[in-house]
Amino acid sequence: MSRKERLRQEREQLIEEKGIIYLDQVSKEYEKNNVAALDGVTLSIKKGEFVFIVGDNGSGKSTLIRLLLRELTATEGDVYVMGQNLKKLRHRQVPRFRRNLGVVFQDFRLLPERNVFDNVAFAQRIIEVPQKDIRRNVPAILTTVGLAGKYKAKTNQLSGGEQQRVAIARALVNEPAILLADEPTGNLDPKNAWEIMQLLEEINEAGTTVIVVTHNREIVNAFRKRVITMRRGVIISDEEGGEYIDEN
Ligand code: ADP
Ligand code: MG
Fold it and tell me: Counting atoms of ligand 1 from 1, which one is nearest the CA of 60?
C-alpha cells in the first residue's frame, strides 16, 4: 500500500471513530487577551449531522468556527476536520483543505457590483473549474436555493433573504462535505430567517454536515436538532433535540 493510500485510510478511520469534526481538549487564547476564548473544548460531530451552536455574545462560537476553517490555530489541543489534524496541515495545504468547507456569514459578503451568476461562479473559478462545468453547476445550485430566475441580477439589488441564498449557493457550488453558517439569519426578518433555515435543513437532508451558529430561539426550539450551548469558552450543554437555553 502506498503512503498516500495509508494516510487516506487513517483519515477514513478517524472520521468513522471520532466524527467528521473532532475537537480534543481545544483551547484558544488570543494574543493581547489573557482570557481563553475557548477553554478545553472536546466535541465530536458525525458525518451528516445538523448542529446548532448557541450562546451569549463572546462565548466563543465564532472562534470555534474559525478554528474549523483553519483561519485560527488552537493554542492547546487538537482540531480534526475530515480526519485531518489541522495542526499538521502545512500552509500550502490550507486552500485545498478549505474546499471541504462551505461558509456563510451574517453579512453575506457578496461582490456588490456583480450579478448573482458571477458571485457563485467566482467560487468555481478560484479552483479552476472548466468554464463548461461552471455553466452547468451554477444554474443547478441556483435552482437548489430558489434563485434560478435571478442569475442576472446585481446582488445589491436583491433582498436580504435573496442575498443570503446567493451566499449559500456560493458556499455549496464546490460540493463541500461541511457547511458552516455563523449567524446566517442575523440580518433577516423572521419570514426570511425561517426560509433560510429550512433551506439549510434541506441541504443537510441531501447529505451535507451542517453547523449553524444562531441566536434565533424560536427556530432552535422548533427544529429539534442537536443543540450545543456555549458559555465563556466552554460547552455547558449538548443535547439531541435540545432547546435554546437562556442566559442566567
Ligand atoms: P461569539 O462568536 O460567541 O460572540 P467569539 O468567538 O467572537 O464569541 O469571542 C470569544 C472571546 O474571544 C470574546 O471574549 C472576544 O472578545 C474574544 N475575541 C474574539 N476575537 C478576538 C480577536 N481577534 N482578538 C482578541 N480577542 C478576540
Ligand atoms: Mg460570533
Answer: 6
